[in-house]
Amino acid sequence: MPRLREGLTLHLSDIEHLEEARTDSVMPPGFGIYLFFDDSVGLEASVGGFPLPVGRHRLSDERPLGFTLCRREPAAFVRRATPGTRVRHVIISLSLEWLDQTFGHHNVALPRASQEHLAISRWFPSRRLAQTALELLDPDSEGNAAIARLRDETVALEAVTEMLATVRPPAARGEGQRTDMLLLNRARDLIEDRLGAEFSFQELASEAGVGIATLRRLFRDAYGCTIYEYVRIRRLEMARLLLEDGKPVATAAALAGYTSSANFATAFRRRFGITPSRARESVW
What we know:
Strand order of the largest sheet: 1-2-9-4-7-10
Helix content: 40-55%
Strand content: 15-25%
InterPro entries: Homeodomain-like_sf, HTH_AraC, HTH_AraC-typ_CS, PchR_regulatory_protein, Tscrpt_reg_AraC-type_HTH
Organism: Enterovirga rhinocerotis
Keywords: DNA-binding, Transcription, Transcription regulation
Order of helices and strands: EEEEEEEEEHEHHHHHHHHH
Protein name: AraC family transcriptional regulator
Number of domains: 2
Domain HTH araC/xylS-type: 185-282
């Protein structure tokens, strides 16, 4: 795991497990930014007894879903993989000292996700960052060692910057909440499968195996918003990815559930600080 600078480390992995594997270790305090590029169905991992969202990472277009993990103190780590499981990931590890020295103690720029022990938060990287991170796994891209190190550090710092701007509030922690975490992950994955289609929250709750009132509470506790607001934001994020892919604004607006381009542009700018047209132009 190469250290880019004091307190900033990058770990790259592209392996396929030929036999069952288990790893038990103790993770030191720190903050991790994780990007997995495969569904990794045969992979399970937990920290401090809490499951990490490593079973499903990508959208239908193979863009990764990421997450962040904060450890304010040492925590037990357990990882299991079944034969045939492929694991491709990029992990950026930040020491707590690096965060304090870079941003200052309790800086308002730092999200709750970096302040709470065992806080786990979902994070959806932009298309450009996902592509540059994936290129780090290409063995042919290494080239000159000094240039490769500079490239690695640039990508790592870009990921930190983007994460700070887009990471979601962490799910609540405490004894008795493991079941809630699993239910929330299940509901979240169901939503990802339905972002481009209409669905009712009652149907979502039923498939997730939970009552609608409980589902509303889970989303409110984890994200500080309603299920409707969560879905609305995710559709806007998906719309931005389409725009970055060069798709027409009207197509992105329709996927986000907007029949009015003006309303879509207003919501998009409020969320991302730029217009849909600017987001589309930025990739050319």
